[in-house]
Amino acid sequence: MKNIAIIGGGIGGLTMANCLQAKRIDFKLYEQAPQLGEVGAGIGLSKSVMDLFRKINLYEELEAAGSFIKYACMTSKHLKVRRELPVKLDSICIHRAKLIDILSKHIDKEKIHLNKKVSKIAQDENRITLFFSDGTSAPCDLVIVADGIHSPIRKQLFPSLNIRYANQIIWRGVTKLRLDNFYQNRFIESWDEYKRFLFVPLNREYVFWLAVQNGAPGGAKITKADLVKGYSGFHPLVQQLIRDSENLIQNDLADLGGDDRIWYKENIVIMGDAIHATTPNLAQGGCQAIEDAFALTRMLITHDFNHNVAFPAYQQLRNKKAMYVVNTSWKLGQMAHEGSKIKYFLSKHAWRFIPGGVFKKSERFINDIKYLS
Ligand SMILES: Cc1cc2nc3c(=O)[nH]c(=O)nc-3n(C[C@H](O)[C@H](O)[C@H](O)COP(=O)(O)OP(=O)(O)OC[C@H]3O[C@@H](n4cnc5c(N)ncnc54)[C@H](O)[C@@H]3O)c2cc1C
């Protein structure tokens, strides 16, 4: 049996660990943080991944911890509905901490190694050595890299693959608030010139919200009061959600670009944000990392852990959908924050007239997991 290491205990690495454990395949997972966890925000999981989680018996737990999204609603900044689309497929929104808890609680504890930051990898044809920042090292045969968009391992293997900034800043938070019935099971996205505000109930008690504006990367952190001021022209509910939020997380939106790339190098393979990070406009980055884990497990087993065949086959299975998500999400984000008033006017009103079939086609493609059966 090959000695397998997973680097990173985020959504991708933990799903990979669950998939391997379900097939009784041994592994060690190394996470740099002293404990597994996630930022205080929500995350949407599409039907495709909920169906995949059925295969490793996590569906019921996730379903119970999240709330179903039944409608996606485009509104004006005054929350006047411009377009409403039924989400026929079982997507849920769940708190990230809850997701990580469910993904980690069934993994054998002795397989998870915390406080283990990989600083370097030495690789030859048959053997790999992981070097940790605490001065220790570990040998292994296959390495699965799931260490996120800033992946130091990807930078070591593929230094020319750079982060692409969208010149947009996103703020997120969770607010304790019981929304009116209308907003239950609805994902709301309201647009104004250069600004967006999105919210969705996590359950009957809490609401997850996001605010997006144009802005250069690396800017100073702002306060809740400043953000409320920035959204003063929006519906009072929007301001209330920001003002009463339990937290405020600020990020620069970025991805790894939409150009072709290789996802593996000999006996090292990369998954999730570390190789195809996407902007969050389609709410798909985590979902794609989860699909990676199922595809990679399947290819490792099908090809008897021969990395020369399994790793290219894994990329072949996953490349088209992952790159579709990266490119479509990028375009959507650019369209939403168009610089000129005319373009903004056109894109705002286009939402009313785009045939429903266009959204359905995209939704069907993203949720298609037949390629994994
Ligand atoms: C604002 C926003 C909203 C989003 N909304 C959604 C959504 O609704 N739905 C969705 O599917 N996706 C969403 N995403 C994307 C999603 O969060 C990511 O795609 C997902 O977290 C990627 O998972 P990952 O495991 O690949 O990487 P990460 O979650 O980044 O995990 C990487 C892990 O590796 C560890 N690590 C890093 N370096 C090392 C090292 N050297 N050694 C050891 N460990 C290391 C880190 O500590 C971390 O635990 C959103 C993203 C953003 C920014």
Annotation keywords:
373 residues; alpha/beta; FAD/NAD(P)-binding domain; 8-stranded mixed beta sheet; 6-stranded mixed beta sheet; 28% strand; globular; binds flavin-adenine dinucleotide
Task: Tell me what you see in this structure.
- Helices cover 36% and strands 28% of the residues.
- The chain has one domain: FAD/NAD(P)-binding domain (3-Layer(bba) Sandwich), CATH 3.50.50.
- It has an eight-stranded mixed sheet. The protein has a six-stranded mixed sheet with strand order 6-2-1-10-17-16.
- With 373 residues, the protein is α/β, with parallel strands linked by helices.
- It has twelve helices and 17 strands.
- Bound molecules: flavin-adenine dinucleotide.
- Residues 7-13, 30-33, 43-44, 117-118, 146-148, 152, 170, 172, 251, 272-274, 280, 283-287, 289 line the site of flavin-adenine dinucleotide.
- Pfam families: FAD_binding_3 (PF01494).
- GO terms for molecular function: FAD binding; salicylate 1-monooxygenase activity.
- Residues 4-302 form the FAD-binding domain.
- It comes from uncultured Cytophagales bacterium.
Strand content: 25-35%
CATH-wise, what's the superfamily? FAD/NAD(P)-binding domain
Count of spatially separate domains: 1
Q: What percent of the residues sit in helical stretches (DSSP H or I)?
A: 25-40%
Query: Rounded to an integer, what's the Rg over CA atoms?
Result: 21 Å
Gross geometry? globular
Enzyme class: oxidoreductase
Keywords: Monooxygenase, Oxidoreductase
EC number: 1.14.13.1
Pfam families: FAD_binding_3
